[in-house]
Amino acid sequence: MAVRGVGAIVRGAFDAIFRPHRFVEFQTDSYGASRLGVIRQLGSLLGVYLVNLVAYAIPLTLAGIGIQSSQRAPAGFADVVSSYGIDATASWQLLVAFVQNSLFISIATAITLVTFHVGVLIVRDSQGIVQSMHTVVYTTSAYLVATFSAVWYLTNQAGVSGARQLVRTLQAAFVYAIIDALGAGLELPGGRPNSLGVETISTQGQWILAILTLTLLYYLFSLYLGARINHRATRSNAVIAVIAVALSPVVYVTGSIITYIIA
Amino acid sequence: MARQDPQTSNGASESTTADQSDDRDEIILRTNPTTRPTLIRLGVVLLLSLGVFGYLQLNPEALGSSDITNTAALIILLLGLILTVRFLIRTIVLVRTTYVVTRSRVEQQYELLFRTHSKGIRFDKVRSHELSQNRIQTILGYGTISMNRGLGPLRLENVDEPETVYEAIRTCAQRAE
Questions:
Q1: Residue of B42, B45, B65 best to disrupt the A interface, most CBs of A under 10 A
Q2: Secondary structure E strands in chain B
Q3: Do residue B134 and residue B106 come from a single domain?
Q4: What residues make up the domain containing A220?
Q5: Is A76 part of a structural domain of the chain?
Q6: Is A186 contained in some domain?
Q7: Is residue A55 within 8 Å of residue A146, measured between CB atoms?
Q8: Looking at the predicted structure, is the pLDDT value of residue B20 above 70?
């Protein structure tokens, strides 16, 4: 049983790297077409997603990411956990950190699902929400998690300051490009970057940047495969669906700027 | 009223059944998928990735700074490596795959490292079949034969001389109707 479990994980990792089409493909003959069948399938996919989310967020939380030592547990929570002999403050801090660590990737997953499904709907190739959810759940569980892990490593580890600076500069340049396009005249707290150059990037930083780039490419390519295989979209329509996802950061930043201006 | 000797009649029917079974299992066509397109892709990947990697190594300031250029070279190298391994595995899988058409069924058989995989469809269960070839596949002389799409499908990829194989499948499927 354990060997089969390990074998499944190894095979999954192999497919994720070398055969991404096997990783995202949806078995159209194994799912029902009735409403109850669709609900059951969505529930199953949600279960897969939650298991992967927990598997991602728990190690981060136990490593201390997101834990704020100044936090105190609310009275109600403290009363409940204390009755079981559990330290209320420590467990509350762990819980809050777990929710926070899960939140970013959950938001990214939700945005991916909405933009991807809207993309396949726009090109009129949608075979159903279940197919989109299958694509996004498995894409997220492998590639988006890898991307977030690389970003976490860049943000928190020593020895990669050059790479960290480059990524922050690119992010700032991206936001300023949209600010300038809207003529908003806003300024970010870190100011406008003078150039995209950085003084030096360590070998470790170069490897993390390379892995980050590859995971992002895999993420977009797996969405393309999801549209082609699960929604039977043509090449051009699948590209349009991926562009819809890739444009979501632009939509998000534009919306944030407009909201800020209006407020 | 004449009575058949059960032994004789049974023996005769068993013999007939066995003959019919042998007849149905008679192999009409056995072929291996072509590795041409995969090897071409492998060659293109190797050429492009080594070419770009070499260019970046010879021009360290190509992307502004040597560290950024090194990072880009690393990305190209890793991508090239992954694609090379992927196409090599695909080639090995194709070499170990056999497509078999008998009078009663069409099968895709694959064997590697003591692991056997066989998937087939009986012709009396075939509801749809199609041969597809895009421009490049037509030039290179291979195609994809799909059966029962969306109904527990069987897809034979990289089929060499696809018209011949498809004609055999079509004929057998018509006979089974």
A1: B65
A2: 27-31, 97-102, 105-112, 115-122, 129-132, 142-147, 154-160
A3: yes
A4: 2-33+104-160+202-262
A5: no
A6: no
A7: no
A8: no
- Does residue B50 lie in a domain region? yes
The pTM score is 0.80
Tell me if B162 is assigned to some domain.
yes
Does B63 fall in a domain?
yes
* Domain identity same for B159 and B111: yes
Distance from CA of B4 to the nearest CA of A (A): 48
Report the pLDDT value the prediction gives residue A168, as an integer from 0 to 100: 86
Smallest Cα distance from A21 to chain B, Å: 12
pLDDT for residue A196 is more than 80: no
Whole-Å CA distances, A257 to A107, A168, A187, A230:
19, 18, 11, 35
From chain A, the residues in CB contact with B70 under 8 A are 201, 206
Q: Which of A149, A139, A131 is nearest to A112 (CA)?
A: A139
Is A19 at the interface with chain B, CB within 8 A? yes
Q: Does A170 touch chain B (CB under 8 A)?
A: no
Q: Of B117 and B32, which is predicted with more confidence?
A: B32
CA separation, residue A222 to residues A71, A247, B41, B78, B167 (Å)? 40, 16, 19, 18, 35
- pLDDT for position B173: 87
Give the gap in angstroms from C-alpha B124 to the nearest C-alpha of chain A. 19
pLDDT tens digit sequence for A41-88: 888 888 888 888 888 888 778 877 778 888 888 888 888 888 888 888
A25 located within any domain: yes
- Report the residue of A161, A213, A218 to disrupt the B interface, i.e. the one with the largest count of B CBs within 10 Å: A213
The answer to whether position A42 is within a domain reads no
Spell out the residues 6+ positions from residue A254 whose beta carbon is closer than 8 angstroms to its own: A178, A182
CA distance A139 to chain B (A): 18
What is the structure's pLDDT at B74?
A: 94
Which of A26, A29, A220 is best to mutate for the B interface (most B CBs within 10 A)?
A29
**Closest-approach residue (CA) in chain B for A209:** B71
Mean pLDDT for chain B?
A: 84
Specify the pLDDT at position B71: 92
CATH number at residue B124: 2.30.29.30
Q: Note whether B150 contacts A29, CB cutoff 8 Å.
A: yes
Q: Which of B72, B92, B112 is the last residue of a domain?
A: B92
